[in-house]
Amino acid sequence: MSNDKSIAKPWGGRFSEATDAFVEAFTASVTFDRRMYAQDIRGSIAHARMLAKVGVLNENERDAIVAGLEEIEGEIESGKFPWSVSLEDVHMNIEARLTEKIGIIGKKLHTGRSRNDQVATDMRLYLRDEIDAIAAELKRLQSGLIELAEQHADTIMPGFTHLQVAQPITFGHHLLAWNEMLQRDAQRLADCRRRTNVMPLGAAALAGTSYPIDRAYTAQLLGFDAVAENSLDAVSDRDFIIEFCACAALIMTHLSRFSEELVLWVSQQFDFVELGDSFCTGSSIMPQKKNPDVPELVRGKSGRVYGNLLGLLTLMKGQPLAYNKDNQEDKEPLFDSIDTVKASLRVFADMIPGIRVKADNMRAAALRGFSTATDLADYLVRKGVPFRDAHEIVGKAVRHGIETGQDLAEMSLETLRRFSPALDEDVFEVLTPEGSCAARKHIGGTAPEQVRAAARRARERLADC
Ligand code: ARG
């Protein structure tokens, strides 16, 4: 990127001294805001068309501007565009190049607008595009989860509370819990998109403009749902960015929890699943190692996304109306959150369908830790024993199991009856993990038939959004 002293500043009229070289670099944003070039050009083309519609530009001027901007887009995409730090940001770089290409007409583009409404518009267009890309990755991950859940609607595993074996569940049910979290994330993103898709253009520097602009027309050209009601608010608030970063932080929280479970499950202690080789790395010293780097990294990356959210909240909190240069600091955290959440979702969506499930190990783990103790208590309740007494009886049976090294299902009926005469031969049906899962057959329960129905509903919901 060049730093050419001879380039005149578009705002240089009232200045008699050149900008200090370090200040120039310190205040510039082009090194990072150039990634919004496509949105900046789209916004400028729509603005020029609107100016022609209301008679501020004539048709020839409009056509020259549109053609020039389209050429510039080509230059940027082919890496030929002469970016300059002296021109501060993406907006002035493109505008200056336009004038270089088409002459004096290029200088008319900025009529009736300011960089303040221009940058706010670019950010909203940019974020809108990225929300759509992130939503697509989220959907791909959800679809993989739902498919795996269907395949494992009958696979038994232990469910945990406090990371202690609690009750048997199906692996499909566990996977659909993840899908529910992601479904809410998708809804939050869609909601955030609605508030993002409002057009600031027309607010100009802060108070609006004296030209007879047609904001509804520009909004229609750019696919905005509405125009911002208040010009001060339009150039000033970045709450849509903060809101997106909050959505991103929650997505990362969910992915981080998934990651934590995957890291546990691939460990020798659990040995529930195996990740595809292409998603793991080895150790430079221990030849036997296959490390779950992808989930570990995603868990780690949640930290920077939380940091971005907090940075942006702090950036906004002290600003008086309307635009302040502080807002230039909104870009890097936003871009970082976008990149991080998109990459994390992508790698998860690629990884999940290929995980190998070790169903026998999962079932064996569900048999440990007296996971059907609640089923035994519920059985006694069905035989007329009050729940509190049933709890006590089963507690004693469990203590006996701990002392003798037996699970409940391994005890003889005679032994079990020592704890309650209400127990009969049919008790063994509820003491198996399959019986325990099958009994939880209401909506939201872990029974295989319910898991299959829930997966069907989840897939329908996914198709709707
Ligand atoms: N680069 C600036 C930003 O990102 C554009 C707006 C500049 N406006 C101004 N009045 N200096 O916020």
Return the structural class. Answer: mainly alpha
Number of domains: 3
User: Tell me, what's the shape?
Assistant: elongated
Can you name the CATH architecture of the largest domain? Up-down Bundle
Low-confidence stretches: none
Question: Care to describe what's here?
Answer:
With 465 residues, this protein is mostly helical. It folds into 3 domains: 12-111, Fumarase C, Chain B, domain 1 (Orthogonal Bundle), CATH 1.10.275.10; 116-151 and 170-211 and 222-354, Fumarase C, Chain A, domain 2 (Up-down Bundle); 365-464, Fumarase/aspartase (C-terminal domain) (Ribonucleotide Reductase Protein R1, domain 1, Orthogonal Bundle). It is built from 19 helices and 6 strands. The chain has helices at residues 21-27, 30-33, 37-53, 59-77, 90-102, 115-151, 171-196, 215-222, 231-236, 239-266, 293-317, 331-351, 359-367, 373-382, 387-404, 413-417, 427-431, 433-438, 448-464; strands at 156-161, 164-170, 198-199, 226-227, 273-274, 356-357. It has a two-stranded antiparallel ribbon with strand order 1-2. The protein has a two-stranded parallel ribbon with strand order 3-4. Helix 8 links the parallel strand 3 and strand 4 (226-227). It is elongated. The two termini are 42 Å apart. The mean pLDDT is 96. Bound molecules: arginine. Arginine binds next to helix 6.
Layout of helices and strands, plus pairs?
Blueprint: H1 21-27, H2 30-33, H3 37-53, H4 59-77, H5 90-102, H6 115-151, E1 156-161, E2 164-170, H7 171-196, E3 198-199, H8 215-222, E4 226-227, H9 231-236, H10 239-266, E5 273-274, H11 293-317, H12 331-351, E6 356-357, H13 359-367, H14 373-382, H15 387-404, H16 413-417, H17 427-431, H18 433-438, H19 448-464
Parallel strand pairs: 3-4
Antiparallel strand pairs: 1-2, 5-6
Helix pairs in contact: 3-4, 3-6, 3-8, 4-5, 6-7, 6-12, 6-19, 7-10, 7-19, 10-11, 10-12, 11-12, 14-15
Bound molecules: arginine.
